[in-house]
Request: fold
Amino acid sequence: MRGSRRLRFARGWRIARVLLSTQYAYMLEYRAEIALWALSGVLPLIMLGVWSGSEAAGGLGLSPERLSRYFLSAFVVRQFTIVWLVHVFEEDALQGRLSPYLLQPLHPLWRYLASHLSEQATRLPFVVLIMAIFFLFQPAAFWLPTPGGFLLAVVAIHLAFLLRFLLQTVITMLCFWTERAAALERLLLIPYLFLSGLVAPLEAFPEGVRAFALLTPFPAMLSFPAQLLAGEPVDLAGGLITIGVWAALLLPLALWLWQAGLRRYSAMGA
Amino acid sequence: MLRRFWATSLAADLEYQVNVLIELLAVAGNLAGSLFVLSLLFGQGGSLGGWSWEEALVVLGLYTLLDGITSTVLQPNLSTIVTHVQNGTLDFVLLKPVDSQFWLSARTFSPWGLPGVAAGFALIVVAAARAGARPDGATVAAALVLLLSSTVILYSLWFVLAATSIWFVKVWNATEVLRAALVAGRYPVSAYPVALRTFFTFVLPVAFLTTVPAEAILGRGSAPWLLASLVVAAFCLFGSRKFWQFALRFYTSASS
Reply:
């Protein structure tokens, strides 16, 4: 028994390595595009500009350094939690490219997950560059997180990414039934934008709105890891539990929709 | 000619009624979110960069209006330049007895941006009235001229970026960067720190897109800004024209 489990683990490891390295090589081809995508995530930095000049920030006791750190962290978290599954999957399903993936002895979602992770690796140097330019203009905001805090933040960013990936997988599976899955994703992006803490720190929300936002999965996808990265005091257990509960809800739903969707799937020529 | 262009695309698009619902929801959601964030920015205080709540709403209305125009005309048209270059069909466009820049910029029209245009317009009118604007003939004329010049500036920025696809086929992302940076136009430019304010006035003319027309609507417009806006608009339009001619010199069609 133990031997076979080790064998399975070794096989999984080999598949992961091959998938990641080929997808990484593939993504490197799109360096220029990915650099532009990275740059198009400037929203938190623009919001930093508005917030730092506003009277509201002073009223809430948010110092300029704290704002800078929070929004720069939000920028970084956003960069590494971007999910574009629905757009590629829609095209793959439409053009019949999904069919050969289905024949392989590997769940196609692993392939998409690997390509997202590889895209993040390609993005990393550009994000570091943008951060360097930011600190050049705002040297007072520079900070080094503690090693423990940094590790926790990296883990939280990955968990936040996985949660976003799961949520979008659920939406993506609707591709099997409707042509408007991408439009639905665009609608879902609106509450994400305004409730996750991307455009305003959650502390600035009125009590009722904050309580409502915390009931949604969105703050756990951005505000929670960003606060960890910025070194702010944060409810660690609460954040992790929120991510865990939402993941436990979404994972079975995504897998069930996948099964049900496949039965309906008829690709070109099938 | 525009009427004929747009009537055909409208007929094709209205096939999808669910999209109308989705688009209305998106506009309403975005507007509600923007209002919420703006209210957070005001906090207990009464101003943002020297602008009152109602005045800042005029800026937000202008942004919504211009964003609607982007989705209605700019994006659907200019995104096709990339496809034309990729497929080599740009040749057919160049052979047509219509100015190629005009054809590429105005060929289609997407009704999905219209809810945004309407919402933006309504917000401007309501907010300006509540801010106590007294629209006389001169104010309305100045506001219309400035709105036109901000549309021209916006168009030129989009067109120049889209035209670079003559060299770089994968440039479509660059317009996403532009769209992301233009979000800065949701707030009056005086709300930003000095360095960013300078950038948004002289490098990326966001100030001329929303803040300057808003000042005119509120009756605070001044002749120098009106003149500056016209000069920037004329410069941008002329620049986009020259840039297109320059880019075409590098275009070697698909067969050559």
User: Anything to note?
Assistant: The radius of gyration of chain B is 19 Å. The longest helix of chain B spans residues 53-87. Chain B touches chain A through 36 residues (CB under 8 Å).
